[in-house]
Design goal:
CATH superfamily of the largest domain: FAD/NAD(P)-binding domain
Helix content: 25-40%
Oligomer: single chain
Strand content: 25-35%
Radius of gyration: 21 Å
Length: 412
C-alpha cells in the first residue's frame, strides 16, 4: 500500500491549489482527479479582491497572471429604475477595497484548473487523471481505493482532503452533514465570445423586467455572463435554442451596452441551476477535511465560490504546516472561522437576492427605494464591502436583522 501525507480527492482548483502548497513544503501528496480533461463548469472564473489577497498569500498570484489572469477595475450597477447615463457616469473603482489588489481577477475555469494541476505536478505532487475513486475510509488510518486503467489501487495517508465538489464522496464517508436552505431563484451562465464594444475592465449587474444579469469580461472579447430568473421558470432557457434566447435576454433598456453581449456568440455550454446556500457545521473529521464546495457553498448571486475556496486552502494548509499533529483538534480554528464566514456571506447573499433576483412590482419598488436611500446614506452599501473586501471587512452590525430591514425597507 502506497502511503502519502495527503491524498486530495479532486484535482480541480481547491485540490490542486492545496497540493501545490503542501508539495512545495516537502510533503508527499497524491491527487486523484476523475476527469481526463477539465471542462467549462459555468462557474469558477471570478475571484473577489479578498480572494485575490488569499491567492497572493498562497504564492499563486504570479502563476495565475502568467496563465492569462485578467483584472476588472470598475463596476456599474444598472436597473430599470436608473438612467443608464447616470449609472455609467460614476463606475465604482474596484481597487478601493484592498491594497495591492486592483480589482477582481478573472481566468477561464478549464485553464485555471489545468494551470494549478500542472503546477502541482511540477512541485512534486503525484497527480493522476481518469481515476475512479471506489471507496474512502476516514478515521485513524485513512485510506482510498481507486481504479486507474482497469487496475485497483489502495493508498493511505495521514489526511484525506475532500476537494471533490458539491457531491463530495469524502463528506459522505466522513458522515459530515450538509445543511441547506431552500432554493430561491434560478441562475444560468454561459461564456460568450466575439463581444466587441464592451470595456474589458468593467463588470456590471442589472435587473429589468423578469431577468437580472451579471457580466464579467474575461479579456480578448470574451465575457462570462449570468442571469437570474424565477424558480417558476425553470425551463425558460431549455431546448436547442436556449443559449440564443438567453443571450437575447441581455437586450435591456437599462443597459444599452448589453447589445454587445447579445450580439456575441456562445463559447461554451449554458447551464442553469436553482440557487441556494449550503454549509457544514464542522468541515472535518478524524482523518479528513473538506475544502471548497465539498464543505458547503454560498449562493452564487454574489460570486464568492473561488474566494471561499482559496481561503479554505490557505487556512487549512497554514494549520497543517504549523504542526506535526494533524489530529482534528488542529482544525478547530478553521471550522470556527468558516462557520462565521459562511454565516455572514449567507446573510449578504439573501440581501442581494432580494434586491437583484426578485421580480414584479413590489420588488421593483424595493430596488427603487433602495437606490434612492443609498444615494443619501452610503452606509446602506456596507454589505458590498463583505462581498469585495471579505466578510470581516464589514462591521458586525451589517449582519443583523436591523441592517437588513434598513436596506430592504419595511415592505420587505
Amino acid at each position: 500500500m502506497d502511503r502519502y501525507d495527503l491524498i486530495m480527492i479532486g484535482g480541480g482548483i481547491s485540490g490542486s491549489a492545496m497540493a501545490i502548497v503542501m508539495a512545495r513544503a516537502g510533503h508527499r501528496v497524491l491527487v486523484l482527479e476523475r476527469s481526463e480533461q477539465f471542462e467549462d463548469q459555468v462557474r469558477g472564473e471570478w475571484i473577489a479582491p479578498w480572494g485575490v489577497a488569499e491567492v497572493q498569500r498562497l504564492g499563486l498570484y504570479d502563476l495565475l497572471m502568467g496563465a492569462g489572469g485578467h483584472h476588472l477595475t470598475h463596476h456599474i450597477t444598472y436597473d430599470e429604475a436608473l438612467n443608464p447615463d447616470v449609472a455609467e457616469a460614476a463606475p465604482l473603482p474596484l481597487g478601493m477595497f484592498l491594497p495591492n489588489v486592483p480589482g477582481p481577477l478573472c481566468i477561464g475555469h478549464p485553464k485555471h484548473c489545468q494551470t494549478l494541476f500542472d503546477e502541482a505536478v511540477r512541485c512534486g505532487a503525484e497527480a493522476l487523471r481518469g481515476v475512479n475513486v471506489v471507496s474512502v475510509i476516514t478515521g485513524s488510518e485513512p485510506t482510498v481505493t481507486y481504479e486507474l486503467d482497469g487496475v485497483t489501487h489502495t493508498a493511505s495517508a495521514r489526511l484525506i482532503v475532500g476537494a471533490d465538489g458539491r457531491n463530495s464522496m469524502v463528506r459522505e464517508a466522513a458522515a459530515i452533514t450538509l445543511n441547506a436552505d431552500r432554493p430561491h431563484h434560478m441562475f444560468g451562465g454561459m461564456l460568450v465570445e466575439g463581444v466587441s464594444g464592451w470595456d474589458d475592465h468593467i463588470q456590471a449587474i442589472g435587473t429589468e423586467g423578469e431577468f437580472a444579469f451579471l457580466a464579467f469580461p474575461q479579456g480578448d472579447g470574451k465575457v462570462r455572463v449570468y442571469g437570474s430568473y424565477s424558480l417558476d421558470e425553470r425551463s425558460r432557457f431549455s431546448g436547442p435554442d436556449g443559449p440564443q434566447r438567453f443571450l437575447e435576454s441581455f437586450r435591456v433598456n437599462c443597459s444599452p451596452r448589453n447589445r454587445h453581449i447579445a450580439d456575441g456568440r456562445p463559447a461554451g455550454p449554458l447551464r442553469s441551476y436553482a440557487n441556494n446556500d449550503t454549509w457544514t457545521d464542522v468541515p472535518f473529521a478524524q482523518g479528513a477535511v473538506l475544502v471548497g464546495d465539498a464543505a458547503g457553498w454560498n449562493d452564487p448571486i454574489i460570486g464568492l465560490g473561488l474566494s471561499i475556496t482559496y481561503r479554505d486552502v490557505r487556512m487549512v494548509s497554514d494549520l497543517l504546516l504549523r504542526s506535526q499533529d494533524w489530529s482534528p483538534a488542529l482544525l478547530e480554528p478553521y471550522a470556527e472561522e468558516r462557520t462565521e464566514r459562511m454565516r455572514r456571506l449567507r446573510f449578504v447573499a439573501k440581501i442581494q437576492s432580494s434586491l437583484d433576483a426578485e421580480f414584479g412590482d413590489q420588488a421593483r419598488m424595493r430596488r427603487h427605494s433602495y437606490f434612492e436611500r443609498a444615494a443619501r446614506d452610503p452606509m446602506l452599501g456596507l454589505h458590498a464591502f463583505a462581498v469585495m473586501g471579505g466578510p470581516e471587512a464589514a462591521p458586525p452590525e451589517t449582519f443583523t436583522a436591523a441592517y437588513r430591514e434598513r436596506v430592504l425597507g419595511v415592505e420587505a
